[in-house]
Amino acid sequence: MTVSNAPTSTGTAPKDPGAAIGGSTAGGGRLSQVVRWGVLAAAAAVGLALSLLLGGFSVLSWVVLSALVYVVAIYSVSRAVEGPRHALDRLVTGVVTTFFLLALIPLVSLLVTVLQRGTRRLDAEFFTVSMRGVVGEGGGIAHALQGTLMITLVTTLVAVPIGILAAIYLVEYGQGRRLARSITFFVDVMTGIPSIVAGLFAFSLFSLVVEPGFKAGIVGVSALTLLMIPVVVRSTEEMLRLVPNELREASYALGVPKWLTVVKVVLPTAVAGIATGVTLAIARIIGETAPLLVTAGIGTSLNPNLFKDPMPTLPVFAYYQITQPGVQREAYIDRAWSAILVLIVIVMALNVVARLISTFFAPKTGR
Fold it and tell me: Among 199, 237, 238, 358, whose CB has the most other CB atoms within 10 angstroms?
């Protein structure tokens, strides 16, 4: 009996629809990128048509309807070509991508609105003059910008050493000790408290110690310090725990005391992560509004003294410009949007700095 190895089919064109679309066998093909983009384009067109038919075009309705059509279409096509397993994967991917795009809509809308309205007052006067004597157009954020920078700087100088030292104690010295457990508990509690609670605590404390209703920059520093310390402790603690114990043991084997090992080995190894955590903590507190409303207050003039008179800040300045406009309402609203834009730029710059620190100052593992 002879078995022939010659092909039994003389045709060369694939008979399976999956092979024609991008695969080779029934239920085992792969959708080509052109087909996937074609399905997406068709879904966008159908979603646009449905949005117009259901009562008028809007970006939200168009995105939602297009996403629903795309999920159903890609699942159907993928099931016919690739099989149920790949079809389910594409279905889940489509759902996750849809929710991601829906989450981006308000963020993108916010950024576009801030850029459109916040650039109207971005001139030299806006950054160099205060609101002293201004009741209509004109004026600027010099006083609020100064207050924000001063309060943030002093808060950082107070909170960062406390947070780093507390984290060093928890990781290097406090294993199993009652004090370490107590510090961890209070850090967890402080991490979850609302920011207004920290502001009310600082305001009440200074009202009892100094005078009732006392508002100044130092009160805002106290409130923001309560919010910043737990963030620094948590981030520094995680970075210190990532340092390999082999480095510590090698240092101990050479006779180096523990405190010098922490200073010369552990901290330099974790410095990139610690600096990143500190930068993100600064970005977190610089935009706080609620605690500064009740602690630092509001003013219209430059105030370089943290211990006397209310000290204006950018978040509080924007809040009062919107909630308490004067006769020329549009001028107040424009100043508020511009102040918000400046604050967003500062926060974004701090986040970029944190990324750069983590990238360029991370320990080099290569030779």
Answer: 199
CA dist., res. 12 & res. 9, Å (int): 8
Q: Confirm or reject CATH 3.10.150.10 for domain 127-360, answering yes or no.
A: no
Is the pTM higher than 0.85? no
Burial of 348 (0-12, 13-18, 19+ CB in 10 A): exposed
CB 263 within 8 A of CB 195: no
Q: Within 10 Å of residue 341's Cβ, how many Cβ atoms?
A: 21
> What are the backbone angles phi and psi of residue 47, rounded to the nearest 5°?
-60, -40
Lookup: tokens for 240 = 């210190």
Give the Cα separation of 6 and 294 in Å (integer): 89
193's CB contacts (< 8 A; 6+ apart) are: 226
Q: Could you please report the per-residue DSSP string of 316-355?
A: HHHHHHHHS--SSHHHHHHHHHHHHHHHHHHHHHHHHHHH
CB of 31 within 8 A of CB of 50? no
CA dist 235 and 114 (Å) reads 31
**For 114-124, how does the pLDDT look when each residue is reduced to its tens digit (9 = 90+)?**
998 888 888 88
In this prediction, residues 132-160 reach a mean pLDDT of 90
Residue 226 CB neighbours (<10 A): 21
Alpha carbon separation from 38 to 62, 293, 316, 335, 344 (Å, rounded)? 17, 53, 50, 46, 38
As a whole number of angstroms, the distance between CA 148 and CA 156 comes to 12
pLDDT in tens, 52-102: 888 777 777 888 888 889 988 988 888 888 888 888 988 898 888 888 888
Q: Which of 356, 352, 341, 355 is nearest to 126 (CA)?
A: 341
| pLDDT number for residue 97 | 85
